[in-house]
Amino acid sequence: MDADKEWTELPNEMGQESPKYIMVFCDGTGKDGESLSQEEIPTNVYLLYKFVERLPERVEVEGVTFGRIAHYIPGVGSRLQGTAGLLAKLHGMATVHTVVTAYLYIAAYYRPGDRICLFGYSRGAFAARKVASLI
């Protein structure tokens, strides 16, 4: 399920939007959980993303009801073929794209009171740390 499709405003009793968890999952170099072959094992980041997708749309934490949205970003070079894919994997050329994608996703949905959770594996962990430093 695409996070953009599952997003709904969650009005509270006063007609205001309820806070939400914004979760971004950045996978590792060459890893793309959404297009795995039968032999490939998904990363823990992708498995966590799929687990979060199955959670209820709302959860109560310390007396406050939170919504949630989640976004998965495949690893550097995972969707490129041939020489371009090899160079991207070797040099991490697309890491900046991962950072920008994650940051823009958060910026598009963040409202005061929201909680941001970043997860990453390998270069995806580096990208998640970079996004955290920008916030």
From TrEMBL:
Q: Name one Pfam family in it.
A: T6SS_Tle1-like_cat
Q: Which residues cross the membrane?
A: none
Q: Which residues form the T6SS Phospholipase effector Tle1-like catalytic domain?
A: 20-135
Domain of life (superkingdom): Eukaryota
Identification of the protein by name: T6SS Phospholipase effector Tle1-like catalytic domain-containing protein
| Coiled-coil boundaries | none
Q: Which InterPro entries match?
A: AB_hydrolase_fold, Tle1-like_cat
